[in-house]
């Protein structure tokens, strides 16, 4: 009987060890692979009608821009003269951020009297807000999306915009993300979402076009 119990115990231990080894093998990290990202297309030149185009500004606020180096070093220098161009052309301008940041816009791009202001709880500024209703009331068909960040609010709001039948334009020098890799992924995602436009065809209807502020003309 003692021998039988010993054999059973030894067998159980062996099975447990084999099971643990198998589980460890399953959890072991696989071999690293290198994936080649598609090249980001060149920004397109676009001409927009100021009567049917709105600028939507997302999260150009102190709390975010003080902690994200590219916001003030890259985005803001491009956005400041572009905002002056937008104001001169008479575009509708809308702002969207969380409630605690609504009074903390960077002064260079801060709201003016009469601008649309959206307090959001989600990254998509259309979700749970009346942004679409306010834009429709002004006859808006095309949106220029700017702000932080391309892999977050810009991506989600672009998807929401396309779902509401807007054509979307994103100036690449007015947005960024936490790293070059994340920024590249963000640009790829916006072109590959909704009514995809991977070739970056200028102003493809109800799609995203990537551009740059110096390539935008209002006419």
Q: State the name of the first-level CATH class.
A: Alpha Beta
Q: Which descriptor suits the 3D outline?
A: globular
Please state the structural category.
Answer: alpha/beta
Supply the number of structural domains.
1
Task: Specify the CATH homologous superfamily.
Answer: Isochorismatase-like
Rg (CA only): 25 Å
Number of strands: 9
The percentage of residues in β strands lies in: 15-25%
Q: Strand count, sense and closure of the main sheet?
A: 7 strands, parallel
Name the helix and strand elements from N-terminus to C-terminus, one letter apiece: HEEHHEEHEHEEHEE
Q: Which residue ranges are poorly predicted, with pLDDT under 50 across at least 5 consecutive positions? A: 1-22
> What is the CA-CA span between the terminal residues?
97 Å
Q: Overall mean pLDDT score?
A: 89
Number of helices: 6
> What is the CATH third-level topology name?
Rossmann fold
Helix percent reads 25-40%
CATH architecture identity: 3-Layer(aba) Sandwich
